[in-house]
Design goal:
By secondary structure, this protein is mainly α. A five-stranded parallel beta sheet has the order 2-3-4-1-5, covered by helices on one side. The protein has a three-stranded antiparallel beta sheet with strand order 6-8-7. The protein folds into five domains: 190 residues, Rossmann fold; 166 residues, no CATH class; 84 residues, no CATH class; 114 residues, Tetratricopeptide repeat domain (Serine Threonine Protein Phosphatase 5, Tetratricopeptide repeat, Alpha Horseshoe), CATH 1.25.40; 99 residues, Serine Threonine Protein Phosphatase 5, Tetratricopeptide repeat (Alpha Horseshoe), CATH 1.25.40.10. Helix 19 runs antiparallel to helix 20 and helix 22 runs antiparallel to helix 23. The protein contains 33 helices and eight strands. Strand 7 and strand 8 form a beta hairpin. Helices cover 63% and strands 5% of the residues. It starts with a helix and ends in a 9-residue tail after the last helix.
Length: 697
């Protein structure tokens, strides 16, 4: 039998590669041993910038300041403007201190920032929204021993801090940010403002890549022109270390006045933090101009992405390069300090990205938009985990498209449509609906109400309305979409059949069961003819028809279809597939309705066991299976077993969904019923009066 720690790992969904190290730290007797270096655990530092080793110059005192602050505080903030080297400094501290921990980029909200930690903990985030992922990450973090460092890079503002401190109280936080409002931080946090390098340190940095013999006076002038900004100095050091490059020629290039229009665009993008923006701009542009033409063209998409690490898979999709080609580009760019690569991520500094964007060729944005449209379409439906890791970059590119191509450009509308689909896949439904409404309005006006792209937008908006519980609006949308699709693309077209299916679901939600069943019958018949009887979409229509029959009280017919569907799904999708589990749940419900309670309980027990293993203990479908099994136990007089299940289900739903969610309230009522069935009237009364639940009292 597994020991309790291993069982806890399974419950938290921790990856096999991470958990053995955590278990070793905790120790079997609950005592945390001294933390030694462990090669396996260093995988948790995924996303951390690579060490500069001997090239890290001029910040030794700052590393010492962080070390001192981290030893006496549970949270430290490194604050400073663009290009001061906040991320480099945080990374260097973790290398020198040999700390164990995690590196993530901050999200736009505290929930998104907490959710970003989940992949580092090996948590399976598929089919979960940001709130659910953040909750699971919090549980996993609570199981970690003290002393683990969590670096949160580029926190947008201090409004997230209290939430992060509360949710990761046993971790030591190291935060980098441009926010300088010290007064907004709790007094227990250490605040370390970062400044420009001293002139002597700046010259040492310029010499660090091989320019040992360069004239010191010239180097001082170069450092002064770029305002002693570490990011610009590091880039110039790489150039000065190149063969046949002399400091005087670099100085002359920096002194030359930049194009005023491009300079203004750079200043607008970089913000007001730079002391000497002209010199910084010239330093970056000089380096970009020194790249091979094919390399410079390849990195053009990086000018439009978010200020956080770029996954290699996204970089490959946007550049159109295979692994070997991308590797060659990254090698050249890393050598010149244009970007850095660590693990499977690429980091491009915000100032460099701004310079790339404003000096790109005329077609660069069009190429990036086209590639991004294809990329989002490829991952929207089947890979929400990848979408979650990339969504900030898709959003940033979308902003560039709307600003520079206008929001009514056809390519921008295609990108808007696909991004809305990404939001739906991530459970960010309100954002999806807002974007779908804008896209639909523009497409109806520009393309007409019957254009295929317009119909796609209307269908997406209906899905959003349905997810928000705005079922009447969704049904109205679906009715119009179906009517047009039947007329324009034909009654048996796959998209028409999808519309029929969606409308039937809407009718069911509104209690218009007979209309839903009629649609489901027609959809099933057409899909059998068009797709075949074993196609997953056909089996979904078959499933839906059984649900309709069950709602009409035609239990025997529903059970017959559910048996057929379950058998087919096991053959086509496998016994562990979520749709197969759905069929098992439905068939168990049919057994209960037929009075075959023992058969139902047996099926529910098997379904719950598989759901726990495949989907995880807090997946919505797993919780639904727990609730069903508790219902069966109550019917068999096994009230205490029902209580244990209902207690766990309610606790999970309160934590993941909140006390006011309809599913949580169902669990609340179920547990009250189970308490009474078990003769625990006092517990039932206490729960009924619990003020967390809006209908209590």
């Amino acid at each position: 039998m597994p020991d309790p720690l291993t069982m806890a790992a399974t419950a938290f969904g921790l990856a096999k590669g991470i958990w053995p190290i955590i278990k070793e730290i905790i120790g079997r007797n609950g005592v945390s041993p001294a933390i030694d270096r462990d090669e396996d655990f260093k995988t948790s530092w995924e996303g951390r910038p690579a060490s500069l080793a001997n090239y890290f110059v001029g910040r030794k005192a700052d590393v010492d300041r962080i070390t001192e602050a981290m030893s006496g505080s549970g949270a430290v903030v490194i604050s400073g403007g663009a290009g001061l080297g906040k991320s480099r400094l945080a990374a260097q501290y973790t290398y020198e201190s040999e700390s164990r921990g995690f590196w993530t980029s901050a999200g736009g909200t505290a929930v998104q920032t907490r959710a970003a930690l989940a992949p580092r903990l090996g948590i399976d985030a598929k089919d979960l929204n940001d709130e659910q992922i953040a909750a699971k990450a919090g549980q996993a973090v609570a199981a970690l021993p003290p002393g683990i460092v969590w670096v949160i890079d580029n926190l947008p503002e201090f409004g997230q801090v209290n939430d992060l401190l509360a949710s990761a109280s046993n971790l030591t936080l190291l935060i980098t940010t441009r926010d300088s409002r010290r007064n907004l931080l709790p007094p227990t946090m250490d605040f370390l403002p970062l400044t420009l390098l001293e002139p002597e340190a700046a010259v040492d940095l310029l010499r660090s890549r091989g320019a040992d013999k360069a004239d010191e006076v010239v180097l001082k002038e170069i450092a002064d022109i770029v305002g002693y900004l570490p990011m610009a100095l590091e880039m110039l050091a790489a150039r000065l270390g190149e063969p046949l490059t002399d400091a005087a020629s670099v100085l002359a290039e920096l002194i030359e006045a930049p194009n005023p229009l491009l300079m203004k665009a750079f200043q607008d993008a970089a913000g007001k933090d730079l002391g000497k923006p002209e010199g910084v701009y010239s330093a970056i542009i000089g380096t970009l101009n020194g790249l091979a033409p094919e390399t410079r063209r390849a990195i053009s998409p990086f000018g439009y992405l978010a200020d956080e690490p770029v996954p290699l898979s996204l970089a490959s999709a946007l550049t159109g390069l295979d692994k070997e080609g991308l590797g060659q580009v990254l090698t050249e760019c890393a050598r010149q300090s244009v970007l850095s690569a660590a693990g499977d991520q690429i980091t491009v500094h915000a100032l460099t990205a701004s310079a790339i964007a404003i000096t790109n060729d005329d077609d660069a944005l069009d190429r990036a938009i086209s590639s991004d449209i294809t990329r989002i379409a490829a991952i929207n439906t089947d890979d929400p985990v990848t979408m979650r890791g990339e969504v900030a970059h898709h959003e940033a590119l979308h902003i560039h498209a709307k600003r520079e191509k206008t929001s009514e450009n056809h390519s921008t509308l295609d990108l808007s449509n696909n991004l809305a689909g990404g939001y739906r896949a991530l459970g960010r439904t309100e954002e999806a609906v807002k974007l779908d409404e804008e896209t639909l309005e523009a497409r109806e006006r520009l393309l007409g109400p019957e254009h295929l792209d317009t119909l796609t937008s209307r269908n997406g908006l209906a899905l959003g309305y349905w997810a928000l519980g705005r079922t009447k609006e969704a049904v109205k949308m679906d009715e119009k979409t179906l009517e047009i699709r039947v007329r324009v693309i034909g009654v048996d077209h796959p998209d028409t059949l999808k519309s029929r299916n969606n409308l039937a679901i809407g009718y069911s939600e509104l209690g218009r069961i007979k209309e839903a069943v009629k649609l489901d019958k027609g959809t099933l018949k057409a899909r059998v003819m068009v797709l075949g009887p074993m196609h997953p979409h056909t089996l979904m229509s078959q499933n839906n028809l059984a649900v309709g029959y069950a709602a009409l009280g035609r239990t025997a017919a529903a059970v017959k279809i559910d048996k057929e569907t379950l058998k087919a799904r096991v053959m086509v999708l496998g016994p562990m597939h979520p749709h197969t589990l759905m069929s098992r749940n439905n068939l168990a419900g049919g057994y209960r309705a037929s009075g075959l309670t023992e058969e139902a309980v047996k099926l529910d027990e098997e379904t719950l066991a598989v759901s726990m293993r495949v989907l995880g203990p807090e997946h919505p479908d797993t919780l639904h299976s727990r609730s069903n099994l508790a219902l069966g136990y109550r019917a068999l007089g096994r009230a205490e077993e029902a209580v244990r299940l209902d207690e766990g289900t309610l606790e999970a739903r309160v934590r993941v969904l909140g006390p006011e969610n309809p599913h949580t309230l169902t669990s609340w009522r179920n547990l009250i019923t189970s308490y009474r069935a078990a003769g625990r009237a006092a517990d039932a009364d206490a729960l009924a009066a619990d003020e967390r639940f809006p209908t209590a009292g």
